[in-house]
Specification:
The complex is a heterodimer of chains A (about 325) and B (about 450). Chain A is mostly helical and about 325 residues long. Chain A is built from 13 helices and four strands. The two termini of chain A are about 40 Å apart. The chains are: A mainly alpha (about 325), B mainly alpha (about 450).
Chain lengths: ~325, ~450
């Protein structure tokens, strides 16, 4: 499940970031920037989007009480998140199929980018609230209310952190996808700015975690592996930045992806074994053995079918773009 | 509006919206690959233009279906946390499998829609076939989960908690096979009829356009075959309901008193106050024969069940009647069209689509399938009330405690109306322009894709 969440962040997150840059597409190359974004997202966003659905269904099959508690306590941000997801997906498709007239296209673009900005923030808020340890459950009933757990500085900081992270990823990926030098430069600048924001927001999140999410913060600085992990994260973050600076875009792409993976892994490990801290652990919320075994079998079988297909999808649509980027 | 009613309304609205796109998502890929296969076989450009045109429509509809499906998977927890906490471990399995099936569908749809020039023709057709198969599978998995809510199996209850959970037994519940068959056929029939209706409408204006003739032939074949088979699956389903859900059978037939040799009621208004179904045409012994294959079988009436465990009879009975009427009308249209086709074939003419009457009826029949799907869904969902898991958990016990549920209900309703309007408008723009160059002589003048 963590794996699916990471992949969603890496790929789906980049799609959102693309939407963010769509809003900030300006200057005389704006149409070309938009076209590149649309071309990059078009064939793959639906498949990327399914990772999120997979997270949800695995959560409610394997850990039903956790799903029930999260969706009760965080009803409001989750509902807003849903609206964001709906608008993002549909406006993108509508834009692709509506009249190719400027004002019509601009209207869809605006909705698409606003939804692309709001959705990652809300996603971050939800994750931040889960990590903050303020959702209290007694006898399966949520007693901490419907506002308190997410209407706090820490979840919002995580929200903006997620946004900057997605924007950074998208910027880095698009430098690889762009086939013209000017476009590449445009997205390089944007990725650098976003990367800078990631750094600042990471610091803010860490500071706020002291009061906002004490257990997770303790987890972060608990043991040698945690420190090692964070050292690695920092190394890759700096490497991604440096590669971007020196225009080694393919290296930057790999480093940025590793960096985000490590951030999420670090979060997951810091929270372990809690699912919804402090009441629900993965042991207390786990479904019976029969269900888990079957689910594991299904996951394994599904992965066998999915990965070749997914690889094929990306090879078909991303292979050529990567090739043209190499030529420059 | 209290919380329970708002939650039920929001769920009902979300499902009613999604089911249309889901059904189209199941059936449309089949139509596309038939057209594409015909193109590969005959090299007739008209089929390529058709496959591309249909693919465009599918792209829009699939996107709306995908996001509205995501909304539903969240809403299970947002609105019914009690249900998920209880049933997640038992029935989460088909949802997870559905996740994978949907995943496969999304991947290959991406290849299909954007890959016309990027993959070889056979690989492209294969991608389309994968979309069709995984689309049908994801529908089947979701309906299995719903079937479990009607006939829950695969666990024992000890002290109010489910134990000895067996997810496979839960998936093999008694309602699963009949319900999945019925819903899958319904998707093909409804979509086939809508597509046939649209192209029939275009043919009435542009009588010699081969594009619309080919489209109509493919859509009507798929929709017609499904419509003719559908009453058989309906009969299987009715016998399953009679055996496992007697109170639902009584509600959908408007049967109040327990009766030996019960009649089949056509039409009629059930009155819960007096316990009578008035103004119905009664076919003696009809219900006993249909439900149990025995004219003298006893059918349990609603009066044998406590009032707190009965569904709202009038809605269920009325919806059921509408569904059956639509289904029978579609079967009639399909049989008539088939007869027209045979007659034309015997005379070695290809003029079966020139009957003005057939085209007119096809246009009128276009919405029947979706009316039947919506009313059929009302029958199965409202007919199960007040239970969310039949005999195990009441809907009221499953609902979320959060206040103000009417707000998300209204928000999503407005959002969905907006989406539906845009979708219809975009599709109209796609359809209204009839491609030129496919005249009756079969000569390709220019390819409009």
């Amino acid at each position: 499940m963590i794996a699916a969440l990471i992949i969603y962040a890496l790929l789906g997150g980049a799609d959102y970031g693309g939407g963010v840059w769509d809003l900030f597409a300006f200057g005389k190359r704006a149409p070309a920037q938009r076209a590149l974004i649309a071309q990059a997202i078009g064939p793959v966003w639906e498949a990327n989007h399914v990772w999120l659905i997979l997270v949800i269904v695995v959560l409610f099959t394997a850990f039903p009480p956790a799903f029930a508690a999260i969706s009760t306590a965080l009803h409001i941000p989750l509902t807003l998140l849903l609206i964001g997801i709906v608008l993002r997906g549909t406006t993108f498709t509508f834009r692709a199929h509506d009249v190719k007239r400027d004002d019509v296209q601009r209207r869809w673009s605006l909705l698409f980018s606003i939804a692309s900005i709001i959705t990652p923030v809300l996603l971050g808020i939800v994750l931040g609230a889960i990590a903050s340890g303020t959702i209290r459950v007694e006898n399966g009933v949520v007693v901490s209310g419907f506002l308190k757990s997410w209407l706090a500085p820490f979840p919002f900081a995580v929200g903006f952190f997620a946004l900057s992270l997605f924007a950074f990823l998208a910027g880095v990926y698009l430098t690889v996808e762009a086939s013209e030098n000017e476009l590449q430069e445009d997205f390089r600048t944007r990725a650098l700015i976003a990367g800078f924001a990631v750094g600042i927001l990471a610091l803010i999140v860490f500071l706020l975690a002291g009061t906002g999410a004490p257990t997770v913060r303790a987890g972060i600085s608990r043991s040698w592996w945690a420190l090692g992990l964070h050292l690695f994260t920092a190394v890759f973050a700096v490497a991604a930045f440096y590669a971007l600076w020196t225009r080694k875009y393919r290296v930057a792409r790999i480093c940025a992806a590793v960096q985000v993976t490590l951030i999420l892994l670090g979060w997951a490990l810091a929270q372990f074994p809690y699912l919804v801290e402090p009441g629900i652990t993965i042991y207390s919320a786990a479904a019976p053995r029969a269900t888990l075994q079957l689910l594991l079998i299904a996951l394994a079988a599904g992965v066998l079918v999915l990965f070749p297909s997914y690889y094929y999808l990306f090879r078909v649509f991303k292979g050529e773009a990567a090739y043209s980027a190499r030529r420059h | 509006m209290n919380g329970l009613l708002a939650a039920r309304s929001q769920m009902a609205m979300s499902l009613a919206f999604h089911i249309v796109f889901a059904a189209i998502g199941i059936a449309m890929p089949l139509l596309m690959i038939i057209a594409e296969w015909q193109w590969l076989r005959t090299k007739d450009e008209v089929y390529l233009a058709l496959a591309k045109r249909w693919a465009k429509g599918t792209a829009i509809l699939f996107a709306v279906g995908a996001v509205s499906g995501t909304v539903l998977s969240f809403e299970l927890g947002l609105l019914w946390p009690g249900f998920m906490r209880y049933a997640g471990a038992i029935i989460g399995m088909p949802f997870s499998l559905e996740g994978f099936a949907f995943f496969t569908e999304a991947i290959f749809l991406g290849i299909y829609l954007y890959g016309w020039t990027r993959v070889p023709p056979r690989a492209h057709l294969f991608a389309g076939a994968m979309v069709a198969v995984s689309g049908a599978l994801s529908g089947i998995f979701v309906v299995i989960a719903n079937a479990w809510m009607n006939t829950p199996k695969g666990f024992h209850i000890v002290n109010g908690r489910p134990v000895d959970i067996d997810p496979l037994a839960a998936m093999m519940n008694p309602a699963a096979s009949a319900q999945t068959l019925h819903m899958t056929l319904a998707a093909y029939a409804a979509t086939g009829f809508v597509v046939a209706g649209i192209h029939a409408f275009m043919l009435r204006r542009d009588a010699n356009n081969r594009f619309h003739k080919s489209a109509l032939a493919i859509a009507l074949t798929v929709g017609g075959v499904a419509a003719i088979l559908q009453p058989l699956s309906g009969d299987l389903l009715a016998k399953m309901v009679a055996k496992n859900l007697p109170v639902k059978l009584a509600a959908l037939e408007g049967q109040f008193a327990t009766e030996k040799g019960a009649p089949l009621r056509i039409g009629g208004i059930p009155d819960e106050g007096s316990g009578l179904t008035r103004y119905a045409i009664q076919i003696p012994y009809g219900l006993s024969i249909l439900a149990y294959n025995d004219p003298n079988a006893t059918v349990k009436g609603l009066n044998d069940f406590p009032a707190t465990e009965r569904p709202p009879v009038a809605i269920v009975h009325l919806s059921f009647q509408i569904m059956v009427a639509c289904g029978l009308a579609m079967m009639g249209i399909a049989v008539w069209a088939a007869w027209q086709y045979w007659r034309a074939r015997r005379k070695k003419s290809n003029a079966w689509l020139e009957s003005r009457w057939l085209l007119r009826v096809l246009v009128l029949g276009a919405p029947l399938g979706f009316i039947a799907i919506e009313t059929g869904w009302v029958v199965t969902e409202v007919g199960r009330q007040p239970w969310i898991i039949y005999g195990v958990m009441k809907t009221a016990e499953a609902v979320t405690p959060i206040p103000g549920l009417v707000v998300p209900f209204i928000t999503f309703t407005v959002l969905y109306i907006f989406l539906a309007a845009i979708t219809v408008w975009l599709l109209l723009r796609q359809v209204a322009a009839s491609p030129q160059g496919f005249g009756s002589d079969g000569q390709k003048v220019m390819l409009a894709a």
